[in-house]
Fold this protein.
Amino acid sequence: MDMLKVSVWRGGADGEYRTYAVPRYESQSVLDVVTHIQRNIDPTLSYRFACRVGMCGACAMTVNGVARWTCRTHVAKVADGDALQIAPLGNLPVVKDLVTDMREFFDKWARARGRFVPGATRKDEFARVASNSPERVAIDAGIECIGCGVCYASCDVVSWNPDYLGPAALNRAWTLVKDVRDQGRLERLEAVAGDAGCHACHTHLSCGERCPKNIVPTAAIAGLKRAVALAVWKGEL
């Protein structure tokens, strides 16, 4: 039987790689490899997963230097010969082994005002937004984000500037800025206009290249830059 030589990060931020021999199978995912190690070789290995079918994003890890969903990544497409290197997501604190602390990722969503602010009450008529309106089309381009953190882990700016809100939080902010029902537009634009906001993006495009949902956060960030500039010109900010 063919074998894979799998180097897996063990420990915390100051840990090290440990190598395991794992049987290689047809149509084998990287998550299958990690699961085999945990269930058959080393039960102390810590990692995170849930749905296994690309719906939750919990299994995101760094595979051969690239942030990926491990459940949807086939070994045959990423292995360097028979070698794999698996590490936790970058730009996030390591809890243990392949598990990262996602709190700062989601805290930045909150800082970017990534929460819908309603204006209508239950007594008002149900809001109707045309599916082909420019605002709705702009929202559709970014609404499928599931918060997996792949874009955040791939962002060079986050590596340089830990305060940077990051592509996922800014993408979320943009979908709400374009929502005609939302009442928090100006507060949201003010939140993303600072030094750690949309203007810190250097447009390296790594976020869009790595996004498993084919979202392009840099397009959303460019939209925020224009919206902030227009609000300043109008004297709203």
